[in-house]
């Protein structure tokens, strides 16, 4: 085991699944750790007064030279001889961590995939991005400098009230990005993010206790907006007119797809051609908000997806205008379409609500609609084949009805819908 030098540290080769260590021959217990990410840090390893092995990180290579790190290691190891425990002392100092420091720790760990969510899998990048936005826009400005161990439950609920009343609201700034608003929904999501990250920190020993335990998250006014039959028919006419005038065809196709399927915005925009299975009338999503799923899609939706997929060589059904990614600008086009149509408060999620509403108007049960939307605990084809066939039939009839409305047709009567549905359902399902 040679004496550590810059040449030796630089020559270390990282391994993809484990840390690599090199130890110094001059100062026993002093070494360098190379992580799979390529980061090199100096550390000491020692036994404390209880004869437990501990490691203490001195600093990162590049910021510290080998010589400076060795001198710091000597001082820390000397304190161990006197009964000190550098790792325990650092842990105690963490009780003085600020909210901003704990938030930074959480974001770093979550983005690296080292924190598991409720499904026992690494927290999704989209979820972390949402958390970062709430931290930067609401949590950090209001309590970022506060010491976590000094916070009380009342402080967390006061934070929630401040966000709800718009204390962190600000108008849209030049360039990309939207307007930061307050409200009950924003406040509730911000507090849920704070509570979650503090619980991660407590569970992993970063803080002793979470001041957010027991907080009552404010109830938000859930969006009830959905398009009526007349509004869907009017929207279809406006979309057809704007398409003839040169409105973005990819965005219009994406809007129509969301209406015909009830799929979420990013499920539609990020859809790949390889996921479409026209013979089985479904789209196979390797990952959704509820995990991997096979989702039923009616003939009208499948026909639209296949037609849209033939427009380019991109692996995405809805490709970006430039680059190799998928299209993202559907919200701006939807806003333009709805402004022309005189429809207010219409978002991609409203289109999803509209699909569910029309399914309900056709007489389909809440369980069936839940399966169509991907809310159920299992995908389309899991255990009960007859239920899968019923979902496909339901998706086909709902998509056909919405397509009829978008194309200016009349609404299907409940009586006719029930007759068609009962005539086409599998026998085992009809008898269940």
UniProtKB/TrEMBL annotation:
Domain of life: Bacteria
Tyr recombinase domain mapped to chain residues: 222-397
Span list, region Disordered: 166-185
Signal peptide: none
Any one Pfam family match given in the protein's UniProt record, by short name: Arm-DNA-bind_3
Residue intervals of the Core-binding (CB) domain: 97-202
The entry's keywords: DNA integration, DNA recombination, DNA-binding
Record-stated family: Belongs to the 'phage' integrase family.
Name this polypeptide is given: Tyrosine-type recombinase/integrase
